[in-house]
Amino acid sequence: MQLVPTRAQLYSFGAVVMMVTFLAVGMPVFASSHREAPLTSGDPKVDATDLYAFVSPDNSNTVTLIANYNPFEEPAGGPNFSSFDDNALYTINVDNDGDAKADISYEFQFKTTVANPGTFLYNTGPINSLTDPNWNVKQTYTLTKVEGATRTVLGTDLVMPPVNVGPKSTPNYAALQSQAVNGLSDGTKVFAGSVDDPFFVDLGSLFDLLTIRKLPGNAGGGVDTVKGYNVHSLALQIPISQLTLKKNKPTDVKDPGAVIGVWTTASRHTTKVLMADGTASHTGDWVQVSRLGAPLVNEVVVPVGFKDRFNASKPQDDAQFANGATDPELGKLLNGLYGIKVPPQGAFGSASQRDDLIAIFLTGIPGLTKSTKAVPSEQLRLNVAVPPTTNPNKMGVLGGDNAGYPNGRRLGDDVLDISLQAVAGAAYPLFHPGFVVDATGAMLGDGVDGNDHAFRSTFPYTSLPNQGYESVPHMSASVTTPAPAAPQASMGGCMVQRDLTLGVSGEDVTCLQEYLVSKGFLSVSPTGYFGSLTQAGVKKWQAEAGISMTGYFGALSRAAYSAR
Amino acid sequence: MSIISDSTKKVAPVLIIGGLIIVGAGIIVATNLPTFFPNQASVAEGATKLDKDIALGEAQIREKPTTTKPYITLSSLYLQKVRETSDAAYYAKIDALMDKAEKLDPNDGDIPAIRASTLIGRHLFKEAKLQTAKALTLNPTRPAYYGLDGDVAIELGQYTDAVTAFQKMVDLRPDFASWSRIAYIRELYGDVPGAILALDTAISSGSSYPENIAWAYVEKGKLLLRSNPAAAKESFGQALRVLPTYTQAMEGLGKVAFAEGDTKEAEAQFLKAYEGLPLAQYATDLGDLYGVEGNTTKAGQYYAFAQAALNTSAKSGVNTDLEESLFLSDHDMRPADALAKAQRAYEARPNIYGADYLSWALFKNGKIEEARTYTAEALRLGQHDSLILFHQGLIAKAAGDMIHAKEYLTKARALNPNFSVQYANVLKSELASLK
User: Fold this and answer.
1) For tag attachment on chain A, is the N or C end more exposed, with fewer CB atoms within 10 Å?
2) Which residues face A93 on adjacent strands?
3) pLDDT reported for residue A199
4) Residues of B in contact with A15 (CB under 8 A)
């Protein structure tokens, strides 16, 4: 996760902040005048939100790697927006000797099939199993393991669960999801699909100004911005002996061969803009469009303005970003805003460079996550010899629990708090024993201490995705419990049972319009289409009914009507 | 017909300014938030994610940030808002934000890039070009800057520069933004299957904004409408499934209905589009439809609405010379004015449309030979656009060049018999007269 809002998790700003969006603007007054293509879009399907790597708590012979994509996935957005991109290549990469190059990669490629091309519906009835004929639009994938020159297809047409449409369409979601955990012949387990976003963060408190609601931030008071949203998750559980340098299961924590580095990437093919020979398709090289390893890297390691370059870059070339870690902007902010006495910081190679952050982000912590070659590179590093604990501390290494971040990352690790405190200098005394950590700096946090849903005890560990409730929109981040039965508004003999807003058509719109006409809020004949006139009428009615004049006829409006 | 007929007179003017008012709802949502933190604020019913993001962004700006990022973030959100509402009033707000951001960091390439976006929105392409060049100088690693640079190049008629810019863009980052641009340049060069494939790839890539996806389905629908109205209808329908309020898709469905001979349905769809967003474009559709039906009174009414909407756009700082000259020429209104606007537009946007509309305005002013001097320029990318071919065919005919008249008009019809509500039948009869 990145700290200050950026591309990934914080995509509500991220889409905008990080990939920056200069959308070419404005609908044309005439279509033929010029074409205004959007200029970005946040690119959520290849936008990695978070990467996790930990020794599996219920199977310590294996490591679990989870890469999440598609930030702020609306449970109700389901079929239209929640999928992987069929044209993208998703990989989870493992470097087992510290040379900043992938030794083993797992490649995911997706394929969408539509069972009945005559309908665009996601499902035509309840989906009770992964082979249910009611399920119309499904994605499957191929998983390929790449090790050196050897490519091994571990599985094709691997199944995914549907998105969690809601209680009518996906009544027994847990069963559907468990059917989508694929056991592979080499002992690997794999899962791909929608899950509750395991990350927890207070975006408001971490926006550019780093406004922490309740200083220092280690005692609650934050609001989890990603609560109630889903992500699309890639999860692997792999025998440790398949991943390590010596192909063993190391037991000595001091063994540099026990350290693996992990990062995830997504790539797409480029193309030729114009094909001189008149052919429509052309498949160019793969272009890496996103990259994620350790959380917070975009704040600490990657300078502002270099995000595109970072997303396209390889770990082996990370020396170019080293100054970001040795002289972090965030350190200056903490000092400037809160007067926290952060350690000295300066350019890479200078006397004042942040050795602690170099270790955490670029080379690994000696004796824990520093591997054999330790070529400086941004990866999430995990020492697989550290056994899982039954009593994890969310502050990980800073909390005395070496099985957590920055030794790998577990779902429950509070990486925001850890990272804030680390930048404030919490680990600095390891490298500069005389340094006294600032008292406030050692307690910094966002006030959000855990996920809203409990994690599960077995693979893939993440919580089930939030339900779409058959397309009730995500009204605010606080909506995580089932939406209350929507009040029905009765108007004469007509019933309005759903939200009505601009663009909606139907008999219920006619009902609403007839009602508005009868009350003098609308002066044109009912059309059954909710346009701007109807909206204006609803607003007038809302003003008189004493509810906020949104022009949107939703649950509040129905309730207000019923109460009359 | 009955939908708004008896209330047209009082309704329409409201609708014309409605484009600005509709947006107001979003802004009220944004500015009425009582606290800094949106999660604690009661977000108004029906607020979209974009509205909520704008609310947070505006709250952020009130804290007087010390970095450019919040200014850029909010400007970008406003730009998306303009896409969704056509409300040019946001440009001034964005200008003010960029002025502040520039004081914080004059070397942030995002600032000229945002400025270029607002200039493109105002149709000030030469001015935009300076800004895209500046952005690329400050940071040549950003794919988006190449996208903007290519957009401007297309409008300035520098097509090979646009190809180069988009090639650079897609090589840096294949995504929705680059694929949708590739689709347009392929269309301009006449590669319709390649354009459709690029749009499909864009749609597969996805976007954070439903509007973007709906936009791509509409562009695809327009390409399909050339030869396959049923497939076009499906694509416009997809756009509406993604975004039920998307007026461009309603307009598309209206054009499909017209192509299929169902003028009643065409009227209903155009009216829906116009009620949803009272753009000059939709008023013109309606005027043209009533015109071909022989209802000149209603046609005149809607043309008046179109003119009023154009005036509104112009007042808000959008240069509408090109659009208005075509509108005037097409409807035989104020020919001298049409020509003056076409000449100014051609200066500002020397692309194939600038050349064609100038040629068309000259023709409508009886200056046939002068009109002919722009034919080659209008067709310099090839014979790929039915409207241009239709104009140039009529001009050739007026000049007595029956060979080219027949060639252009035949090609126009072969490419897209559904290219225009106003001219589809005219083209048919012109062709018949040439046989």
Assistant:
1) C
2) A105, A263
3) 93
4) 208
